[in-house]
């Protein structure tokens, strides 16, 4: 969100492109675009073929999973006859360690703890405008500046007017993420792929200032600065988020449970390899049946399929556009066509 917007009258550069009306220069540029067009078409066609194969394979894998999955009644013990099979399990999350950030005295039992740091900084935006008077193209470039909360350091030395918009050269605190070395669903240890799916991050709002800290606590943030309601350049705010809640020193909510579809390997849950060649390991926060989890994956597969189809079609459109540019340029040089274009462009 932009808290302040300060437009600046800055350097304006003008470029006169004498070659713009040069027919042969335009043809050379059009010829150079042909290989790029062919490459874009090849990539688009290849993407479409790969995507259709991927979509069919994923659909077959999900059908296979639905027909073979075994429900596990207890999440405390492994069923020997299910070893190596695809199982469905609903269980509360567990870890064996607490996660903590000693700099801010934050400690809780969760699978993931994230520290997000933002600094109030100047941000530059470039605006370019082109005007064609029939003989030359004039390009005007201007810059505007606004103050924003940014997680990354914005280097103001590269600004068009750095002397008026100066950011600090470094951030006193940086973002960090802590992760439990091992996470469990009941008695079963989760694979890394399953843990990666635990992303139900929530803001930690119950904050206490560590002893001797110069920060302030406001609206779920540790704030480093004089006035949180009127931030200044260089002010820093720190927010903590957690995912996969287990146990807490203060009330944040109930412990998270997860639903898992994966292969049982003793007391571990690992990727299941389908006959179609896909790797299957699904995890969802909350209590879902195996059919519900597979239905969600089908919906995601459908969205992904159509998204990649659109991308493939768009790449081919760009490719054909690049290749037909030279035809347009050649036709525009014909006197009859050129006069028609000029007549169409001129006002009545």
From TrEMBL:
Q: What is its main location?
A: membrane
> Membrane topology type, per the record?
Multi-pass membrane protein
Q: Superkingdom of this entry's organism? A: Eukaryota
Compartment(s) where it occurs, according to its Swiss-Prot or TrEMBL record: Endomembrane system; Endoplasmic reticulum membrane; Nucleus envelope
Q: Which Pfam families does the entry mention?
A: TMEM43
Q: Which PANTHER family match?
A: PTHR13416, TRANSMEMBRANE PROTEIN 43
Entries under InterPro entries matching the protein? TMEM43_fam
Alphabetically ordered keywords of this record = Endoplasmic reticulum, Membrane, Nucleus, Transmembrane, Transmembrane helix
Segments passing through the bilayer: 31-50, 310-334
UniProt record similarity statement = Belongs to the TMEM43 family.
Name recorded for this polypeptide: Transmembrane protein 43-like
